[in-house]
Design goal:
Structural class: mainly alpha
Largest sheet: 3 strands, mixed
Radius of gyration: 21 Å
Strand order of the largest sheet: 2-1-3
Number of strands: 3
Helix content: over 70%
Order of helices and strands: HEHHEHHHEHHHHH
Strand content: under 5%
Number of helices: 11
Amino acid sequence: MAEENETLVTEFVLMGLTDRPELQVPLFLVFLVIYLTTMVGNLGLITLIWKDSHLYMPMYLFLGSLAFADACTSSSVTPKMLMNFLSKNLMISIFDCMTQVYFFGSSATTECFLLVVMAYDRYVAICNPLLYSVVMSNSLCTQLIGVSYVIGFLHSMIHVTLLFRLTFCRSNIIPYFYCEILQLLKISCTDPTINTYLILIFSAFIQVFTFMAIIVSYTCVLFAILKKKSEKGRSKAFSTCSAHLLSVSLFYGTLFFMYVRPGSGPAENQDKLYSLFYTIIIPLLNPFIYSLRNKEVIGALRRIMKK
């Protein structure tokens, strides 16, 4: 009978953001606009970088890769959430749930390392400008992007593989709008201690390592900027770094609140808001953060529109 009970759960119920019927359609429209804007912003930025030869530089190659990771993050979560707003069937199969966990986890990890690569790019550009073209060669840039994606894929694969050792029989209700890995561990009938420790260790290591690498890079950049005698040179250097620093602050601030601070009681609702901000709002904001004050991107957009 115990074995039979352990095999009962083959689907999960995603409870979503709210169970109030009158809010489902308005929320659907709001998040549909957000998702379409996110896709247009990120894929449009990738297309712009690909089409305009003036943007064939390492900084924009990394920016295009970040835009692709953001598009993947949003696409791993938002379409299913939109479907659930208009559907009475809130079920998701175990396979689809694991697929969602994998693609969300891989794109999130990839973004961590891409942010480090972008910080290193700014470090070389500002601290060693004469060596920039030599150090940041096309082959090195391609390798850095490739390594970032490979680490993301492998890291997520470890956690998803370990999820398959778990059985689910107590409950199939996930009080989230997507298959969040920590929520899956809470409803597991199998002892999830190994999974929990590995998530904690890997998440802490990746977040702390990448965050500290960014801090070190920008500390060196700050000292290099302060040494510049030209006010115009300092202003230009600050402007090239400000967008990246804003993006890093939003990304890591949300991550630390989600996975470093344990949630309990009323904080669980806050965790859902942090997840919403991280999975949907940040991918929406990033292409605009990097584009609106960037003269090269705006110039490229104008050239494309004139054709």
